[in-house]
Amino acid sequence: MTNHHYAVFGHPVSHSLSPRIHAAFGRQTGIGLEYTAIDAAPEAFAPALESFAAGGGKGANVTLPLKEAAFALCATTSERARRAGSVNTLIRNDGQWQGDNTDGIGLVRDLTERLGLDLRGRRALLLGAGGSARGVAPALLDAGVSELMIANRTSERADALADALGEPARAHSRYWDDLVNEGDFALVVNATSLGRDGGSEFRLPFQLSTPRTLAVDLNYGEAAIPFLAWARTAGCRDVVDGLGMLVEQAAASFELWHGVRPETAPVYAALRGKDASLVTAD
Predict the structure, then answer these.
(1) Which fold has domain 104-241?
(2) Quick check: 139 pLDDT over 90?
(3) Which is nearest to 31 in space by CA: 63, 70, 59, 61?
């Protein structure tokens, strides 16, 4: 029997852990699949996806910087993808792409189920307003945060995301440089690419955190080091990178494709025990 073809699209994507994760899920569930990494610059994404489908591609994950472009290429999208305005999971159905977004549920499952953390009532700061931020913002609101403040270097993007969420009483945007005046937050989520852009230091006012603050980076490996260093220096009690979220969103994608939910704990443990450096967030 021919294995079905799956892939992760991104730019860059060569260091993605997704092929390793899905291979492990396939072995665990007895499902034969071929899962590869395909590097596609934004302008080449649409033809690359078309070629993948023509070659028998049944599903794909989408990572930076293509999540919003993927949304536009879908014939149909799930409610959570529409709320996010971005897609990280593509499903081939009747010759068309269906889009979904498992980033948010992946983050919430990692924090609440794996780590046993309660997000309810937390005042939250979301740094960034791109495809990854859009993926997790609705899920954070659903998980019960009391307030979600969004800050981005380009303030128009933060304004657009806050407006799209449609909850003006809880979700709003702030200028990055004005954050120093906003008091402290019980949850700080980094969805920016600052750590991946070669900068060794993450600059943010320390007064945004308290010893009770949960600091989460959606990046993992080397890309997460600058923000996590800031969080530890700021005295945050719980400091989490994006590896658990990566495994959980992958499991949700796998279930959409194959109808089986894999066990994430052994895959997470295996990855955590290996060198996951030089990788970037999916």
Answers:
(1) Rossmann fold (3.40.50)
(2) yes
(3) 59
- The pLDDT score that the predictor gives to residue 201 is 74
Contact 17, 276 (CB under 8 A): yes
- Mean of pLDDT over the chain: 93
Classify 4-101+244-272 by CATH class.
Answer: alpha beta
* pLDDT tens per residue across span 141-186: 999 999 999 999 999 999 999 999 999 999 999 999 999 999 999 9
In the chain, % of residues over pLDDT 70 = 94
Cβ contacts of 153-160, under 8 Å, gap ≥ 24: 153/192, 154/129, 157/129, 157/130, 158/129, 160/129
Is residue 58 part of the annotated active site? The answer reads no
User: Do the first three CATH levels of 4-101+244-272 and 104-241 match, i.e. the same topology?
Assistant: yes
Confidence of residue 28 (pLDDT cuts 50, 70, 90): very high
Q: Choosing from 22, 58, 67, 109, which is the catalytic residue?
A: 67
Task: Say which amino acid occupies 267.
Answer: V
Q: Which residue has the tokens 């009690």?
A: 237
Residues in CB range of 91: below 8 A, 6 or more apart: 58, 59, 97, 98, 99, 100, 256, 257
Tokens 């937050």 belong to residue: 185
Radius of gyration in angstroms for the set of CA atoms belonging to the chain, rounded to a whole number = 18
Q: Which residues contact 205 (CB under 8 A, 6 or more apart)?
A: 179, 180
Domain residue limits, the chain:
4-101+244-272, 104-241
pTM: 0.93
pLDDT at 198 over 70: no
